[in-house]
Every structure is written in structure tokens, then in C-alpha cells.
From TrEMBL:
SUPFAM superfamilies: Periplasmic binding protein-like II (SSF53850). Residues 25-202 form the Prephenate dehydratase domain. This is prephenate dehydratase. Keywords: Amino-acid biosynthesis, Aromatic amino acid biosynthesis, Lyase, Phenylalanine biosynthesis. InterPro entries: Preph_deHydtase. The lineage of its organism: Bacteria, Pseudomonadati, Pseudomonadota, Gammaproteobacteria, Oceanospirillales. Coiled coil: none annotated. Pathway: Amino-acid biosynthesis; L-phenylalanine biosynthesis; phenylpyruvate from prephenate: step 1/1. It catalyses: prephenate + H(+) = 3-phenylpyruvate + CO2 + H2O. Its EC number is 4.2.1.51. It comes from Cobetia amphilecti.
Amino acid sequence: MKVTASEVHGDISPQGVIPAPDGLRVGYPGHLGGYSRECALKLYANDAQLKAYAGIDEVIRALAEGEIDTAVVPWSRGHQRPVRTTHQALAFWTGICVERRVFRAISLSLLGPPGASPSAVRRIVAREALFEECDAWLQQNLPEVERVECLHMADALDMAESRSDTLAIAPPSLARRPGLVCLAQRIEDDPGRVAQFAVLRRDHARVRGQCFSCDATVDEGQGNAVLSGTSEPAG
């Protein structure tokens, strides 16, 4: 099975996160920089090993086959828009269940190289879902600019970083990346939207919630946790 990246994260305070057994392997879909990685960083103490896989199918298969112990995957884009790939993969692989669901407030920005001129912009690169979430803003502010879809957020960032006429849609935390700055903030059409992520395990039927110190709340009745969108991950 192809693994696109591997890391062990540090400098994440253990207060309010899930204590991770030594060597706990946590997988998530996509390259570095996505929301699934953000949730994994917030959820687990700094002794967990994070692995990035090419996509949702790959990370759930890795969990089913015992390559990892836990998976953090997107569950829905709001309450009425389930992520079909996740639900289809869970229907295919038996013996996997949802341990908890995490809600993460979504904020999107337009990132590009320092000094980028609006008149020089020729294209905007992003995942298809992000274009949908920012459609009204783009129609109003950059109606003539070409939209180029990509599979991974990291691909969009690479293009924006290397081309003076290309911008990327991404979380504002990724403006920390060398060669990129935030050119426009809060460009999402629904500022109050949250995305839902699921923490998956093998052979574990209990669903429970987890409180994340000061930047999360938990719904005791539903077993769901809420992550604040204001605290940004390292990296």
C-alpha cells in the first residue's frame, strides 16, 4: 500500500488530548496541510505516529488490514452533506466502527506569493469541494479567473508557491508555508459552516466524546466533540 508521507508530530501539548499508547499509529487521508491532519494533531498526544495516505480508501484499507491502529477521516461537509467515499469504504470493510466524531469550524483563505497582483492572476487551484464552498465570493471578486481542480491541498499550495500568476484556496494556517501569504480571508460563502470528521478503530463498538481542554466542547448525548477553528496546528 502506498504511503504518501509519514511523520511524528511534536510540540503538541498533551493537556486535553487523547493519551496515546507508545507507538500508536494514526492514519489520515491526503498530504500534509489538510483538515484531517489538523484533527489528528489535536486529538492525539505527541507520542502517536501520524501517517498520510493517498486518499480515504487507502487509509481505511490500512486500518482494516492492521497497518495502522486509528484513522481520522472526513465524515460530512455539514450535517446534510456526507462524504460518500468514507461511507462507501466503511460499508465495504467490515470490523471498523466510529469511536467518536469531531466537528471543526471551517475557514478558508486565498493564498499566493508575496506581492501577487490581482491583475496578473490567471488561475486559482483548489480541491473541487473548496470551489463549491467559495463560489459566491469567487464570482463576485475573481469571475474571469480560471479554476483548476486538484486532488490534494498540497498540490494547490505547490502551484501557488511556484507560479506568480496562480493562487490557492486553503485554511489560513497554511499561509505560514514559505513563499505564501494570505491575500484574502474568510472567503467561504457560509462563515458558520463546520465539517465533521470521524475517528475510526477496528473492533470497537463504543462511541464516546472527548473534550479538548479550552478549545472544544462535547455533546454528551451524541458523543461528539467540537474543535475550535481558531487554534491552528503546527506545520
